[in-house]
Specification:
The protein is built from 14 helices and four strands. By secondary structure, it is mainly α.
Length: 256
């Protein structure tokens, strides 16, 4: 079974079961299934599990029961990290925790992805859509959001997104710095946009105070304008300028 898995890129669990029912082994289907499950349990540290092409971060009793009941939905992939890859993965873990166990396990893979997605999920929609980012940041954002397989993401997609054809122990520190910089660029893009907008409003209206609420100058300008104009958009701006406590609240108030 190990030989067959190492030979194949991705393998359906049913393929391993079928192999044991062939004449060479001659097991009935139930016995073959039982042997395959023992093999999966013993070797789970070297196996990635996919349910309908979606990577499974956990391998526990519930997961085992799901594979047993819905065997046809699962595919598996064998992996063995080289020492070089192990050292590289440790750098990913250390981005978020210098003292965490750094081995390439499902627990640690889940840890890194949870950290990435937790931070991304807190961001407004703007951060997912803006093109006002560097090429590296845009490519990294796409590779994280489309990531389906950890090994490929860590050692191929993420590096290539930032311009690294391959990672080695010699260039991994440079890559990690570039990864951190690109990710932070995504995270801070909304804040950057707000600061740019704040500066634009202050400059456009020649306001003495350069920071929201602009010493209420912006509010006064809108008030004077509305005294002579029936303008719904300007009225909405005035309403938010008088009620919003900060520029983020102001933007949220006038957005769809």
């Amino acid at each position: 079974l190990t030989k067959q898995m190492k030979k194949s890129q991705t393998l359906a669990v049913t393929t391993l079961i079928d192999a044991l029912t062939k004449k060479t082994f001659g097991l009935n289907e139930d016995a073959a299934k039982f042997v395959v499950f023992l093999f999966l349990i013993v070797n789970e540290s070297h196996i990635h599990f996919f349910r309908e092409n979606t990577y499974q971060f956990d391998f526990d009793v519930d997961q085992i029961m799901d594979i047993w009941k819905n065997t046809k939905l699962f595919t598996i992939r064998w992996y063995e990290l080289s020492k070089n890859e192990g050292d590289i993965f440790a750098k990913y873990v250390q981005i978020f925790d210098q003292y965490f166990d750094i081995s390439y396990t499902k627990k640690n893979i889940k840890f890194v992805f949870q950290k990435l997605y937790t931070k991304l999920n807190l961001l407004p929609k703007y951060c997912y859509q803006t093109q006002k980012l560097s090429k590296n940041a845009i490519n990294l954002r796409s590779s994280i959001l489309s990531s389906k397989e950890p090994h490929k993401s860590f050692f191929e997609l993420f590096p290539k997104a930032i311009g690294f054809e391959s990672l080695t122990t010699e260039n991994v520190d440079i890559f990690i710095d570039a990864f951190r910089h690109a990710f932070n660029e995504i995270v801070f893009s909304y804040k950057t946009m707000i600061l740019d907008l704040e500066q634009t409003v202050a400059t456009s209206f020649n306001l003495a105070n350069k920071h929201y609420p602009f010493g209420n100058e912006f509010e006064s300008i809108l008030d004077k304008y509305l005294q002579g104009h029936d303008d719904k958009d300007a009225n909405d701006l005035y309403r938010m300028a008088t009620t919003a406590n900060d520029l983020v609240a102001f933007l949220n108030g006038i957005s769809l």
